[in-house]
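pls design
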């Protein structure tokens, strides 16, 4: 990161801190306020983790399907070459292992939420 960027970053937050400390924009001060909405609609870490893992599952499912098809295609077009056949098997194996990891993460988040709630 460049020093110019860091300098601008620190100046911005110094300005925000000064503005908040002076009372401008504070509720009831008469200044215009901008409402901030929560884009995830989550109130705690457990809900955020559930939403992130759910999104990963939605994204991973079609990727796994495509990678299994790619691995199958590699196996079918190996034409007796053991190296290409092995590459296709590894593609399918890695896709399956990755999907199992995402499913396990979903279960772990559920268990953690049950323990801490």
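designed seq:
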């Amino acid at each position: 990161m460049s020093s110019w960027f860091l300098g601008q970053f620190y100046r911005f937050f110094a300005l925000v801190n000064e503005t908040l400390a002076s009372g401008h924009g504070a509720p009831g001060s008469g200044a215009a306020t901008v409402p901030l909405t929560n884009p995830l609609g989550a109130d705690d870490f457990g809900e955020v983790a559930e939403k992130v893992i759910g999104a990963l599952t939605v994204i991973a499912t079609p990727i796994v399907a495509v990678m299994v098809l790619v691995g199958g295609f590699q196996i079918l077009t190996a034409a007796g070459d053991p190296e290409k056949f092995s590459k296709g098997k590894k593609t399918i194996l890695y896709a399956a292992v990755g999907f199992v990891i995402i499913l396990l993460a979903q279960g772990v988040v559920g268990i953690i939420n049950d323990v801490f709630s």
